[in-house]
Amino acid sequence: MAARLLDGVAVATAIRAEVAPAVAAFTAKMGRPPGLGIVLVGNDPASEVYVGSKLKSAGEAGLRADLQRLPAHASLADLMAVVDGLNRSDAHDGILVQSPLPDGMGADAERQVFDAVRADKDVDGFHPVNVGRLVQNRATLVACTPSGVIELLERSQIRIAGARAVVIGRSDIVGKPMALLLLHRHATVTICHSKTSNLPRVAAEADIVVAAIGRPGFVTRDFVKPGATVVDVGTTPVSDRAVVERLFAPGSKRLAAFAKRGQLVVGDVHPNVAEVAGALSPVPGGVGPLTIALLLRNTLLAAQARSQGR
Ligand code: GUN
After folding, report:
1. 168: which strand partners?
2. Distance 96 CA to ligand 1 centre (A)
3. pLDDT tens, position by position, 16-72
């Protein structure tokens, strides 16, 4: 039997519908909308698309959203000056510096910049204070993608308490916060990574698998217990025809989309997982729309907390 599809678009629409009236109420009370400052350094094509979607969605939700751009050759000091300005701005409740930063900024630039964003404006949930609060299960601002996965599971009536959950990937942005959020909801959590021995066997014990490693089609049907829930966080742009043809059947819609555009955004989960999983989040239309919805909610939460002096 084919897996039930977990509809990220529908869940994101529901979250946005909750955020919009709260944004309107904040705006009426404070005389200004919640404000989000987005910083984009350089012209990475994927980042351009993501930032464009974030600005559009923020506007639709009634937020103020400003984009500050820096050229790819900008220095770390230039970027820090922009962050400092947003940290001091009364009009901005949330700050997001789009990742990745250009290589020329240095290997440690991203960490330094994320550390420099005020914790109470850190709508990405990347600041060490917010990560620490997450560890203690008392965070307000939590990374958007893993929060979105939780919303997708809970609003799709997938039971987390008592479940065995396997998170594949240990990044600071997705894997680690994902594991903590599942743990706080009483799952028994295992984090797998590139050094995990016999990863398919470990994953196949799970009731919930979250794949966040950025390797197209890595999770195949042998990783999945029949009936398990599989959430695909992968979004890797692929332009190699051989890779796409290995994943998608001749005549499939995804192959047709590739033929048209010469590129396809591909998840970490192989399509054959749909034959064994009980529920599966698609790419596109799964986790992606939720990341933006949670960014809007985090901006609202940051604005509410700041206005209450919390
Ligand atoms: N680049 C890709 N995803 C994200 C995200 O969630 N936050 C930031 N700041 N950059 C990203």
Report:
1. 192, 211
2. 8
3. 999 999 999 999 999 999 999 999 999 998 999 999 999 999 999 999 999 999 999
